[in-house]
């Protein structure tokens, strides 16, 4: 699972394609129809993310039920999942606040009022100077630069919590690039996402980032859940076995045996070593 080794999920590809199409359309004149299209795509992203939450919540419920059944085996992994949930919620709240603050600057309304509104309620959807100023200009401490660092920190925190050398970070939330403008000129992450972009596009982009955080959270928690049984024995066959109490039966005697159902892995080829008079074999004895 990683940005370089793990293919994007269908959901990630869909979100990326929707945003890519609308971003490309910005090369044309920003008509009312294009701005309305951003509203439609934004609402679809919000709805998809809301629906996805039930899937994530179900994974956490599975963790809690598993810990109730086998606390000694599951608690360590569930504790990590709870930490992932906490930092993911904090990061999503941060992005939500960015969205409301930008809306406040674009329409000149208090942040508390912006929190009650959606993109469709934004008055200046085609305003590109206010978002650029908010995200890029030193006047507002270049919030895009802070956001960039937050993404990097979020991914670093995930790796610290998992603390597993075999773990590879899921794809999404790309900060490495390379990033280029329409003419192929190199751009920074901040310029690529927030420089000279209309408010409707910036608003939609922030919801896209929220969706990517939710997707990464689900992938990481699913990794933890699968790790619970990673060291357990796996079996691919089940069959009845008869174990007789005696291999010699005389006429008229009773035949007694234990009948059991045995699970075994036909893909394994175990090796056994035996030496008369010993109940334990050391490595130096193997082969003798």
What does this structure look like?
The chain is mainly α. It contains 8 helices and 4 strands.
Features:
8 helices, 4 strands, 55% helix, disordered N terminus
Task: Write the topology of this structure.
Blueprint: H1 10-25, H2 32-69, H3 71-107, H4 111-114, H5 129-136, H6 143-162, E1 179-180, E2 186-187, H7 189-194, H8 199-227, E3 237-244, E4 257-264
Antiparallel strand pairs: 1-2, 3-4
Largest sheet: 2 strands, antiparallel
> Alpha-carbon distance between the termini?
45 Å
The Cα radius of gyration reads 29 Å
Q: Unreliable segments (pLDDT under 50, ≥5 consecutive)?
A: 1-5
- Count of domain modules: 2
For the largest sheet, list the strands in their spatial order. Answer: 1-2
Number of helices: 8
Shape assignment: elongated
Strand content: 5-15%
Number of strands: 4
Oligomerization status of the protein chains: single chain
- SSE order in H/E notation? HHHHHHEEHHEE
Helical coverage, percent range: 40-55%
The secondary-structure class comes to mainly alpha
What's the mean pLDDT score?
Answer: 83
């Amino acid at each position: 699972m990683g940005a370089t080794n793990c293919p994007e999920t269908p959901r990630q590809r869909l979100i990326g394609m929707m945003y890519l199409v609308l971003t490309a359309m910005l090369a044309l004149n920003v008509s009312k129809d294009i701005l309305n299209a951003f509203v439609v795509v934004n609402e679809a992203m919000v709805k998809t993310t809301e629906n996805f939450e039930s899937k994530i919540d179900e994974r956490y419920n599975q963790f809690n039920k598993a810990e109730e059944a086998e606390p000694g085996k599951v608690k360590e992994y569930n504790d990590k999942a709870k930490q992932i949930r906490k930092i993911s919620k904090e990061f999503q709240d941060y992005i939500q606040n960015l969205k409301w603050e930008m809306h406040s600057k674009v329409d000149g309304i208090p942040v508390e009022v912006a929190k009650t509104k959606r993109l469709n309620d934004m008055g200046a959807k085609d305003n590109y100077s206010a978002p650029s100023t908010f995200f890029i200009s030193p006047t507002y401490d270049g919030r895009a630069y802070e956001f960039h660092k937050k993404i990097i920190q979020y991914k670093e925190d995930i790796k610290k919590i998992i603390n597993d050398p075999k773990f590879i970070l899921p794809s999404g939330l790309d900060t490495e690039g390379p990033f280029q403008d329409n003419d192929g000129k190199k751009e920074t992450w901040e310029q690529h996402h927030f420089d000279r972009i209309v408010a409707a596009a910036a608003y939609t982009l922030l919801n896209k980032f929220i969706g990517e955080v939710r997707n990464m959270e689900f992938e990481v928690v699913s990794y933890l859940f699968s790790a619970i049984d990673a060291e357990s024995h796996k079996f691919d066959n089940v069959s009845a076995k008869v174990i007789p109490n005696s291999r010699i039966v005389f006429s008229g005697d009773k035949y007694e045996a234990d009948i059991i159902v045995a699970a075994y892995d036909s893909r394994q080829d175990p090796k056994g070593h035996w030496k008369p008079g010993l109940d334990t074999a050391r490595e130096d004895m193997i082969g003798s």
